[in-house]
Amino acid sequence: MNTSPINALIIGANGNLGRPLVKKLQEVFPNTIATSSSNTKEILHRIMDIDLIVNVANRYYPMPTPSQMLEMKKSIIGLAELIQEASRKTQARVIHFSTYFQYAPEDLAPWSDYSDFKNSATSIYKSISSRFGIPTTEIVLYDNFGGERKDKIFDLMLDAAIKQNTFNATFGESQINLTHISDIVEGVVGLAKELVQADLGSSRAYQLKSSNTFSLRELDALISDSLEVATNVNWGALRYRDKEVFKMWDSSEVPSSWVAKKSLVDYILDEKSNSHKRSY
């Protein structure tokens, strides 16, 4: 059991999850260094006294060009290889993140090239435990809300409803699971505290998934009821993608000590209030 001050490194510190996670980790582990993925190689080669590596970096392009595909592969798999070598040398425990698309049902797998890259990286992280006996924790994420990014479908639907704009959508049967970014941060920090105290052993996997699973039509109804307005969604204006989530799946167990607390309705009302303040 580790009772010394923990030296932690968080990679991907400037991202939507990275920024709030850095602040919280530094409260728990004051000796936390934050870096971007581009500086990771230099940092890992220079710092040898490290107990915990948290990799929240995530390079993703929804419709990648060939050069962007290579960039994703290098970023996701190459970074995993760097972390594996650093963990071997320093015995640092590792927290890494997966997407629920990696755990799609067999008839939908593989979901994409991106999920394949993530699968390869996950195998590399798991080998840190199997080859070197160093504990690792995989955290599977679903969709989120409440962060700095406002370009995902829930926030776009909400913004259109607040501004009473028309929103073009598919037929709306696909599903989405939403967890507030602060709840995710709390879950990660809790698992980090467990990991640094864990005995040597195998890798563990958890999902940070709330009970907020909706079809897009259900989500639109929640927005409409919360704002007490009629929304202007043009259902069927867009085609479904080649693969859609029509029934949400689980990927692993939820940590026993974690529960998502942030209310989706409260967030919707807060965004309405904030939007009105910005308009003045």
Describe the structure.
The chain is built from 8 helices and 11 strands. The chain has a 6-stranded parallel beta sheet with strand order 2-1-3-4-5-9, with helices on both faces. It has a 3-stranded mixed beta sheet with strand order 6-8-10. The mean pLDDT is 93. α4 links the parallel β4 and β5 (136-141). α2 (40-46) packs parallel to α3 (66-90) and α3 (66-90) runs parallel beside α4. The chain has 280 residues and is an alpha/beta fold.
From the structure above, extract its key features.
8 helices; six-stranded parallel sheet; 42% helix; 280 residues
Short characterization:
The chain is of the alpha/beta class and 280 residues long.
Secondary structure class reads alpha/beta
Give helix % range.
Answer: 40-55%
| Overall spatial form | globular
Note the gap between the termini.
55 Å
In which order are the strands of the major sheet placed?
Answer: 2-1-3-4-5-9
**Can you tell me the residue ranges where pLDDT is under 50 for at least 5 consecutive residues?**
none
Cα Rg: 20 Å
Order of helices and strands: EHEHEHEHEEHEEHEEHEH
What do the pLDDT scores average to? 93
Biggest beta-sheet profile: 6 strands, parallel
Q: How many β-strands, per DSSP? A: 11
List the total number of helices. 8
Strand content is 15-25%
Oligomer: single chain
